[in-house]
Design brief:
about 425 residues; binds nicotinamide-adenine-dinucleotide; 5-stranded mixed beta sheet; Rossmann fold; 7-stranded mixed beta sheet; alpha/beta
Length: about 425
């Protein structure tokens, strides 16, 4: 007779979002549950998202062609407060990807003790091939379709891959137009002129480096003496690289979608940024050795910062990674098998739910400022962020020590326990 684990759902529940990434999120969740001490009912409830919305976004492109873009929003848990999470524009966006990312957002918000649950959404499109006018049309129609499901007390979007403060300004404007008054608190990551927060744009990348710095403290390493490779040179990776260089560390490799560049003596980041501004990507950069993205991950370095995509560190390449520490700036960049191989090889992984939590933390500060119509200064935000990340880091490190589990499992256990305690107290409705 078929048996099923205590947490497992009947096969038909969750079929819609069953993808490799969602399976990774669930596998990590189930592994963490072994140490989280939560009831079966709560464990089952949190194994699937509360709500998943699929819409289709019709847009007349600049050449007069009509295209219908599939788009999604998944809300994983509203137990602790409104749901919160990014909107990404990417050709690989699926319901399953959003479901996995929404679940990780729940654990991340709970770990940081923010009064939110997790959500994620996106439009399946190739943003580099779309003009600003086309992106604006996609954003406004997508926001209109989501009107019944989002709100400052329901679900608060933010930027993610290939979306930025302009995207958030269009979302805020569309929502506000339909309400009839300005509602800055509907999104975070907006321009400062419409209620955005200082330091939000840098928060994720800066937070990644704050977490690395804290880890160096525990490991007895001196950050300025370390060599870093950073995959992804966008909002997260670009800022993280700059913050590392500001602290005196050597950034020996970086990459974007077009490939990577390597210089064992350290790269000139300002020159790289100018090149990208002029040329659109790193391709053809003349003053360093060109490498492919797979080669970049295997370069000789002390710390590998993954700040591009999911599923980059896998069973295939983990045996050849030369870094001693991996910092997950991206969400879900390591597969379950990649994780196991790194553990066997003694490579420490600073997990995504902790390492990239700077973004959602300053998003929370932005939302609080918008609701209170009272704005804080840059130094105050930076120091509040450092305090929150430091506190979460210490709790995760100590839990990992006490229970002899990986930092990832410890971070998930800490997050899951927060949500489970709230759901236990509230009870599962009805
Ligand atoms: P971004 O679009 O600003 O930058 C992404 C970078 O990755 C770009 O440099 C892009 O060229 C590069 N890239 C794309 N495809 C690649 C490939 N195949 N190989 C190598 N590089 C590739 O996006 P971002 O906001 O920096 O987000 C990056 C990751 O960080 C995502 O996983 C996102 O979910 C996560 N994240 C972002 C934030 C935030 O506040 N922006 C917060 C938390 C987590």
């Amino acid at each position: 007779m078929e048996t099923r684990s205590e947490v497992q759902q009947p096969a038909e529940v969750g079929l819609e979002w069953d993808t490799p990434l969602y399976r990774t999120a669930v596998a990590q969740y189930e592994e963490a549950l072994r140490h989280a001490d939560v009831s079966v009912a709560v464990a089952r409830r949190l194994a699937v998202p509360e709500r998943a919305v699929m819409v289709s976004v019709p847009v007349c492109l600049d050449d007069g062609e009509w295209t219908i873009f599939p788009a999604y929003r998944v809300q994983h848990s509203s137990v602790l407060g409104p749901t919160k999470g990014g909107i990404r524009y990417d050709r690989h966006v699926t319901l399953g990807e959003c479901a996995a990312l929404a679940m990780w957002m729940t654990w991340k918000c709970a770990l940081l003790r923010l009064p939110y649950g997790g959500a994620k959404g996106g439009v399946r499109c190739t943003p580099r091939e779309l003009s600003q006018a086309e992106l604006q049309k996609i954003t406004r129609r997508f926001t209109s379709e989501l009107m019944p499901f989002i709100g400052p007390q329901e679900d608060i979007p933010a930027p993610d891959m290939a979306t930025n403060e302009q995207t958030m300004a269009w979302m805020m404007d569309t929502y506000s137009m339909q309400k009839g008054y300005a509602v800055p608190e509907i999104v975070t990551g907006k321009p400062i002129s419409v209620g955005g927060s200082v330091f939000r744009a840098e928060a994720t990348g800066a937070g990644v480096v704050m977490v690395i710095e804290r880890a160096c403290g525990r490991l007895g390493w001196s950050l300025p003496s370390l060599r870093f490779v950073v995959q992804g040179f966008g909002n997260v990776g670009g800022i993280a690289a700059r913050e590392l260089a500001d602290r005196g560390a050597s950034v020996v490799g970086v990459s974007d979608y077009s490939g990577g560049v390597h210089d064992p003596a350290g790269l000139d980041l300002a020159a790289l940024r100018s090149w990208i501004t002029e040329q659109g990507s790193l391709a053809g950069y003349p003053d360093a050795t060109n490498v492919t993205n797979p080669e970049l991950l295997e370069l000789d370095c002390d710390v590998l910062v993954l700040a591009a995509l999911e599923e980059q560190l896998t069973a295939e390449n983990a045996p050849r990674i030369r870094a001693r520490l991996v910092a997950e700036g991206a969400n879900g960049p390591t597969t379950v098998a990649g994780d196991e191989i790194c553990a066997e090889r003694g490579i420490t992984i600073l997990p995504d739910v902790l390492t990239n939590a700077g973004g959602v933390t300053v998003s929370y500060f932005e939302w609080v400022q918008d609701l209170g119509r009272l704005f804080w200064g840059r130094d105050e935000i930076r120091s509040r962020l450092a305090e929150k990340l430091g506190d979460a880091f210490d709790r995760v490190w100590e839990l990992s020590d006490q229970t002899d589990v990986s930092l990832r499992s410890a971070a998930l256990v800490a997050g899951i326990r927060e949500v489970a305690a709230a759901l236990d107290a509230r009870g599962i409705y009805p």
